[in-house]
Amino acid sequence: MPSSNLQISGLCKRYGDFVALAPTDLDVARGEFLTLLGPSGSGKTTLLSLIAGLAQPDEGRVLIDGHDVTYGAPYERDIGMVFQNYALFPHMTIEENIAFPLRMRKVPSAEARRRALAALEMVRLPQVAARLPRELSGGQQQRIALARCMVYEPAIILMDEPLGALDKKLRDQMQLEIKRIHRELGTTIVYVTHDQEEAMTMSDRICLMNGGAIEQLGTPADLYFRPHTLFVADFLGESNLLPGRVVRAEGDTLSITLEHGGLAAGTVTGQALGNGAAFRPGDAATIMLRPQNLRIEPGAAEGALSGRLLDVMVTGSLTKLYLDTGAPGGAAMVAAHPTRREAARYAIGQTVSVSWDAADAVALPGGAA
Amino acid sequence: MKAPVRTRAPGKGARHALMAAPMAILLLVLLVYPVGQLLLLSVYGDQGFDLSPYRRLFESPVYVNVLLITLKISLWTTLFSVVAGYPVAYLISSLAARRKASLLFWVLLSFWTSFLVRTFAWVVLLGRNGVVNQMLQALGILDAPANLLYNFGSVLVGMVHALMPLAVLTMLSVMENIDRNLPRAAATLGARPGTAFWKVYFPLSMPGVAAAAIMVFVTAIGFFITPALLGGRRETMITQIIIDQIQQTLNWEFAAAVSVLLLAVVLLVFAIYDKILGLSTMAGGVSARASAGDRNGSMRRAGNAVLSLLAALSDRAAALWPRLPGRRRKAAEGASRGLWAIVLLALVFLSAPAFLMIPLSFDSGSGLNWPPQGFSLQWYEQMFASPVWMQAISRSLIVGVGTGLLAMLIGTPVAFLLVRSDLRGKSAMLAFVLSPIVVPRMIIAVGIFYFFARLGLVGSAFGLTLAHTVVAVPYVVITMMAVLRNYDTRLDLAAQSLGARPWATLRHVTFPILGAGLLSSFLFAFATSFDELTIALFSSGGLNATLPKQFWDEVTLQISPVIAAVSTCLFLFIATLIWVADRLRHRSLSG
Fold first, then answer.
1. Least CB-CB distance to A71: which of B190, B192, B326?
2. Using CA atoms, how far apart are residues B258 and B240, in angstroms rounded to an integer?
3. How far is B202 from chain A (nearest CA, A)?
4. Pairing of strands B44-45, B48-49
């Protein structure tokens, strides 16, 4: 039995001149939770539709459990799909909705009923079997859509922004629920979202897409701390991007002269990890820094980036500092640290210096976006 | 100068009453009173209380037979219209905007083209020297021209042709609200295409099918144009009896009794429909099954079994289609090509007859023969030289514009009231407003004629405008209600918060945004009046005739090619009107 549950090779889809999905390769392991993340129009929904068989590719192949299903109909693939608006059949009761895929598979009605009720138990809604979908709340409908998808234990479950229509609190709750079900059933899940927080919380791996192609594929931590491109750095979480030029490369550690020198005269050189990418002195590079990895000290320091404090915002558990470091384009730098009662009192307008560990900084090829 | 601050707004109740009053007066005076009087006339004539009209009605089998024939023709018409209209509505509802608009244009064109023009086209088409006979002879199928006209078949063809657009548009309104993801979801859950259609899509489209069926059936029962022009003696329908009684024998009491019978049948049909499906489904929406109680009824189980059978059969049939790996796209294309072929065939059936009038109108020969010979403008010259036709055109335009304006003025406040206010008894009010559509047109026409005759209003443009407003105003209310439902009332509140008084809000915010809706409701009312024959049949005549009335008189007396010229003009007029309305709607949406 092949170890990957879903194999995609050279899959490509065009609409006229528009390339919805450039030739793409992707392997998903059995039991993995993979998220397709990206802005709208990045090709994530196209890829999902091709896996589901709701659209036909122009090139490439889709293998599920080693079977080529590239041109197979949706009903011939061993998949389940949760739609964005749930797509519950409004003329059927909840029980009929959940039993539908079983009836399609010629499961005897007594057993179909038993399994449908078991699926309802699984999503903790045993009392709604006889109701119609419109009699349920949005969150409940979402659970029913999940139950309908799990009940026949497909090899892969595809989810197309399933939590998009729910409010924040319900969404958090459903994220936990989906994770729990994923753990209990061990099904492979391919999940589409444009919400980076959701992707970070839920996924084993994230496939970040942009402009119809995969931008980077890796664990949430990989993408967050070791982005390969400016797009990834910018899309996932808050980041500071400092453009500059490589002056020295020692192993993986690079010294980069920043384009802006802060408030003091003279140039500032910062250090960052090259992340395995080949940088040579003289190359344009951008240092990516997460706000929580910046150290802020009062007063200017020799050779360090200095800035003027623009604003302080306490956003609950985090305190964010906005700094003017004279960056090109006037973008403010953001630093963040946990909010503490005894935290230093800052004065708006005061001069501070900014520093970081080389291990927390990533050099990305190219200048400012 | 400061404007005095008004301390008390005029009473809400008084304002509501003021908004509803014109409509209420119109319907009470020109619908309830005349129709009531007509119905009363059937039992209370000149000689006091008298049941003899009813005795005559049921004495001989003649009239009962006419009723049975009417029902038979209506049933078959309904069946064919819905079955043939379903794929058309299905395809249109599934298309993207631009292609949808172009297919919809053909349906709307036949919907709005006068019944008279379209029925007359069939007279020419099926005549002894008509297109169909000529074609069959050219193909060697017939040796001599066959009698294709004046029988059950020709009536049925004409009726289906006349009413199919109504069926398509009614079903379309429901199908457009069905989530296209549902059949897709069914496919991912393991349903084959046939199963996905019959078990998921079709049940959801049933309210549309039912609404289309009752609309077509009720309209068909009150039809007289098609059976009169395309049918023989044995295809006489019930409304033709009423016309005969009034125009030939002047027997008002008997006409009234037949009207009662007609009304009773229509109300019975509505009652049965309500019993089975609930009238609320007519407004569209997927609410066929309201309560959770009757979910396991035997009716439903039987229905489910039938649908499962259909699903299995169509999936078996699809499996017979040769399938090679990787060829699914071809198979799917084949299925969709089949659907396109059926739909295009239906659209040709709907549009072609009226188009055939165009070459015939330029005929240089002496009659409506196919193929037309030469080219001449003689029939157009005759039309423009005839004072009768010119009078009819101007009279129809005057009455149409008058009806459009009056119906809009009366109907719009009622639509506001029905959508915006939290009045009690709204559904009763809506039923009252819609009653001119439910009551067969013929009964309204006869009632109004009787009423006008005593007031001396017969033949006056003013009277006819009032009468047409009665039948046009429900369409204005329906259109405006739909428009108002989509209107964001917070825009009004925003305007008022910025200092606009109610009238200024209406003038600067509400009406400019609703402009397109107002225009389309005006056009709806105008077209209803412009094409109206039933009321005009009695209440206009001679030099006072409207265009449809003049058309009717000509067609029933003699068939002359001038009519082809008039038909062409009417057809092009309607096509332009639809096109302009569509452009205006687009501009208002994008602007």
1. B326
2. 10
3. 11
4. antiparallel
Check residue B289 and give its pLDDT.
44
DSSP classification of residue A254: E
> Would you say residue A216 has pLDDT above 90?
yes
User: Which positions in chain A touch B186 (Cβ < 8 Å)?
Assistant: 89, 100
Q: What percent of chain A has pLDDT over 70?
A: 96
Strand pairing category for A156-160 and A79-82: parallel
Q: Is A331 exposed, middle or buried (0-12, 13-18, 19+ CB in 10 A)?
A: middle
Q: What is the mean pLDDT of chain A?
A: 88
At A117-174, the pLDDT tens digits run 999 998 889 999 999 999 999 889 999 999 999 899 898 999 999 988 788 888 888 8
DSSP string, A112-128: HHHHHHHHHHHTT-GGG
What is the mean predicted confidence (pLDDT) over B103-129?
89
Q: CA–CA separation, A268 vs A306, rounded Å?
A: 9
Q: Does B188 touch chain A (CB under 8 A)?
A: yes
Q: B330: nearest CA in chain A?
A: A71
Find the CB nearest B189 among A71, A91, A104: A104
- Provide CB contacts within 8 A for B272, sequence distance 6+: none
Contact criterion met (CB < 8 Å) for A83 and B191: no
Among the partner residues A72, A101, A131, nearest to B190 by beta-carbon distance: A101
Nearest CA in chain B to A129: B292
The tally of CA atoms less than 13 A away on the side-chain side of residue B17 is 5
pLDDT in tens, A50-109: 999 888 899 999 999 989 998 888 888 889 999 988 899 998 899 999 999 998 889 999
Closest chain B residue to the Cα of A147, Cα to Cα = B189
DSSP A43: S
Does A89 contact chain B (CB < 8 Å)?
yes
Residue type, B432: F
Spatial strand order in the sheet of A205-210: A79-82, A156-160, A188-193, A33-37, A205-210, A213-218
Above 70 in pLDDT, residue B6? Answer: no
Residue A81 contacts B where some CB pair is shorter than 8 Å? yes
The span from the CA of B365 to the CA of B368, in Å, is: 8
Residues 94-133 of A with CB under 8 A from B: 100-101, 104-105, 130-132
Q: How far is B328 from chain A (nearest CA, A)?
A: 6
Q: Which residues make beta-bridge pairs with A81?
A: A158
**φ/ψ of residue A61, rounded to 5:** -135, 150
Q: SS3 of B447, please?
A: helix
Angle between helices A94-104 and A138-150 (to 10 degrees): 20
By Cβ distance, the residue of A70, A74, A89 closest to B188 is: A74
Could you give the maximum distance between any two Cα atoms of chain A, in Å? 81
Distance between A168 CA and the closest CA of chain B, angstroms: 25
d(CA B22, CA B577): 29
Question: From edge to edge, which strands make up the β-sheet containing A18-29?
Answer: A18-29, A4-15, A59-64, A67-68
- State how far Cα B354 lies from the chain centre: 17
Q: Which of these, B391, B384, B389, B358, lies nearest to B372 by C-alpha position?
A: B358
The DSSP element (H or E) to which A351 belongs, if any, is strand A351-355
User: Can you tell me the distance from the alpha carbon of A97 to that of A116, in angstroms, rounded to the nearest whole number?
Assistant: 9
Q: 300-329 in B: which are within 8 Å (CB) of A?
A: 325-329
Please report residues of A whose CB lies closer than 8 A to that of B189: 75, 80, 100-101, 104, 148-149, 152
A-B contacts at Cβ under 8 angstroms: 79
Q: Does B16 touch chain A (CB under 8 A)?
A: no
- Tokens 């049918």, residue located: B231
Q: Is A287 within 8 Å of A242 (Cβ atoms)?
A: yes
Alpha carbon A258 to chain centroid distance? Answer: 30
